[in-house]
Amino acid sequence: MTAGSTVARADTAPAARAGASAVAATPDRLRYDVTLRGDADGSHWTGRQRVSFRNASDRPLREVFLRLWGNGDDGCGAPGKPSPVRVSKVRGGAPGRLTVGCTALGVTLPKPLARGERTAIALDVSIAVPERNSRFGREGAFRFLGNALPVLAVHDAKGWHLDPYVSTGESFYALASDFRVRLDHPSSLKVPATGRTWTRPGKPGRTITQSVAQRVRDFAWAAGPFRTATETSPAGVRVKSYWSPDTPAAGVRLTRQDGVAAVDRFGREFGRYPYGEIDLVMTSGFGGGMEYPGLVLLGTTEEGGAVVHEVAHQWWYGIVGNDEYNSPWLDESFAQYANARFYGWDTLGCWSEDDWPSDSAALTNSMAYWAAHRDEYHLVYTAGSCALADLERALGADTMARLLKRYAHDHWYGVSTTADFKKAAQSVTDKDLGPFWKQHRIR
């Protein structure tokens, strides 16, 4: 396999040439059972992980791939400094060698898995939080464990998706899965996590945080001496807030207020938030924000932070999934459009053809393009949200609202593509949207 590309195995290439659109994304119906123990300050977690799955494809499944996204920045490490995420003692299959910068591990199954059959693999996991302030990193006494847990890659009509990690945006593509996670940690640490969580006493001086998350695409958590507060939105969503003591109090209040309002508003606009709980994790030095199912990481100043945009991601990538490496606009542009609507920004004339830097720049470019043109990546947010605002004006506000709610419903817990959205938009109007897509470089 070649790093930096979508890899099609030899036994899947013929299908890709002959009706690839009929190939189901697999493995699906995944369930992760995880038990991890954290050290004194949450910097190192070790334990066992099991994932069971089904083959949804007509073709026998001969192997699976684990994505160790936590190794993305550090790759394969260096002498005396190993990769942050390591796996060992794999059971249920024969592991190969790490590839794609040590972010992909192939596991050959004992026998081909036929369509509809289930199996499982299990492995030991060791996670060392890097010393950088990032989605998988740390800030002072606080630890962020985004994309730290190994997850299974997706195989679809294009083959195995083994794209490289990008720090500019996201490379992630996963199917909705169930997680049951048990985190054993010092009682001095609060541990916000994806899913519905509860705690119970562990051994002396330790606490068990348990989480159950259904139909989510990833699992993330944080650890540290957070201050906490819990409230319930008018629509019944439990919003749990965690913040470092040096986070400005005014920013914490504003973030909590906007977070509660956003989860209810987007529930009305796109479909009721299905997970019951969302955690807002705030610190003063985190750069911007980062979304995970049921948990968002937020840099927070006196003016608040990006909570509305990150909450919108619960729908646009979380519930309505997409391949974030190949179609980043499908989550970032949609989340930013929702953000603009929430705050009532004036979007009339906010972008034009003259603002595109080159003929090769397009809203629907992949992260391969944006990673090579980092100074243009803002277009996914600016031009993307403006394009959707222009579409709203072209269709009418009521029609656009119906379109988005129906589009979300039709792809709830699934995976959408640009073609899917264009088809959905065209279905609600008699206008030919071809010129609109061309003008906004939605290809």
TrEMBL record:
GO terms for molecular function: metallopeptidase activity; zinc ion binding. Keywords: Metal-binding, Zinc. Residues 305-439 form the Peptidase M1 membrane alanine aminopeptidase domain. Its cofactor is Zn(2+). Residues 1-20 are annotated as: Disordered. InterPro entries: M1_LTA4H, Peptidase_M1_dom, Peptidase_M4/M1_CTD_sf. Binds 1 zinc ion per subunit. Gene3D superfamilies: Neutral Protease Domain 2. Zn(2+) binds at H309, H313, E332. This is Metallopeptidase.
